[in-house]
Automatic annotation (TrEMBL):
Substrate binds at residues 49, 136, 148. InterPro entries: AceGlu_kinase-like_sf (IPR036393), Asp/Glu/Uridylate_kinase (IPR001048), G5K_ProB (IPR041739), Glu/AcGlu_kinase (IPR001057), Glu_5kinase (IPR011529), Glu_5kinase/COase_Synthase (IPR005715), Glutamate_5-kinase_CS (IPR019797), PUA (IPR002478). This is Glutamate 5-kinase. The keyword ATP-binding applies. Residues 278-361 form the PUA domain. It catalyses: L-glutamate + ATP = L-glutamyl 5-phosphate + ADP. CDD domains: AAK_G5K_ProB (cd04242), PUA_G5K (cd21157). Its EC number is 2.7.2.11. ATP binds at residues 8, 168-169, 212-218. The gene is proB. PANTHER family: GLUTAMATE 5-KINASE. Keywords: Amino-acid biosynthesis, ATP-binding, Cytoplasm, Kinase, Nucleotide-binding, Proline biosynthesis, Transferase. Pathway: Amino-acid biosynthesis; L-proline biosynthesis; L-glutamate 5-semialdehyde from L-glutamate: step 1/2.
Amino acid sequence: MSQTIVVKVGTSSLTQPQTGQLALSTIAKLVETLTHLRSSGHGIVLVTSGAVGVGCARLGLKSRPQTMALKQAVAAVGQGRLMRIYDDFFTSLQQPIAQILLSRRDFIQRSCYVNAYGTFRELLQLGVIPIVNENDTVAVEELKFGDNDTLSALVASLIQADWLFLLTDVDRLYSADPRQVPDAQPITLVNSMEHLAELQIQTGESGSQWGTGGMVTKISAARIATNAGVRTVITEGRYPESIEKILQGEPLGTQFEPQPRTENARKRWIAHSLVPVGKLYLDHGAVAAICQAGKSLLAAGITAIEGEFHASEAVQLCDGSGLEIARGLVNYSSTELQKIRGRKSEDIPMILGYGGAETVVHRDNLVLSN
Ligand SMILES: Nc1ncnc2c1ncn2[C@@H]1O[C@H](COP(=O)(O)OP(=O)(O)O)[C@@H](O)[C@H]1O
Ligand SMILES: N[C@@H](CCC(=O)OP(=O)(O)O)C(=O)O
């Protein structure tokens, strides 16, 4: 059966750890594998890191740039070279590719998000392999994915992929970083995020020399993707042919079971693509109404407001201790909410001098956090 497969490859797999030069044989095997899967009828999207790493190698820089401006300049050098290499390899196998550079803003604005979906769908129908990276050169600090693990999970959720493969420089997830803890235990299957919490995985401070997020971002990517019904696998990038073996049922890498898609596409967009710009603190009654009874949030249940925001922006809904219980789109600005918090819905027109929505966050625009 034809499947939609997103493969994310990290800098640590694409470059030689000692020299930072490209790992050409790995890239060649990856291209062969993806082309073979495509010609077998699967829809393939490649999310690739490496712009910064390749740019550094091109410019003779010996470590990852620290300032935002230098990182963006180096990525601009590396991205073109990276695509040239992919195009050379894929063209040798007559496989057309496309470049898609995305920024967090493209995911926040619903119209851009829906447009991006349309573009992916057309490309896949045309038999093209889209090659995705963060648009590093225009990203701003507050609105960066920061790591391509998260980006790949959001792409997998957007296109409702069946599989997300996170290719890295370790063969799977371990109970702790195997570089630091030699007797760390391998994890082969994660049934649910509750199961993951029970495993008490330690992820250490960071990843490899050139990678960005380490295991932390891969686990959080697995959370986003599995919540969207996407089976997620962490496996070793040096052996891209493992992807086909895993699809045939071999138990390689760490597999995260997909969760039933309980939320619709729009709610998944609210939960994962939007960046919350404020916090609403709720009393016990409001927390119970939202978490247990699936109700909308009313002004009466709000005890405090943090941040400045406009109506229609995304906010976190928190219990009294500040723990996030849900996310949603607000019907009122922070200035209006300061005036109406704790008050009954029927008093709102009198307080504000104009009528507004009965709810502060309608249940159709509200997603429980897990
Ligand atoms: N619990 C863990 N299991 C496996 N690897 C871990 C764990 N914690 C941290 N790591 C580290 O994460 C690294 C991979 O992350 P990263 O360098 O960001 O790779 P990539 O460039 O592929 O995104 C591994 O080299 C490993 O040292
Ligand atoms: N957009 C950046 C990717 C940063 C990133 O996530 O790197 P990695 O941890 O190697 O997947 C680049 O192309 O260098």
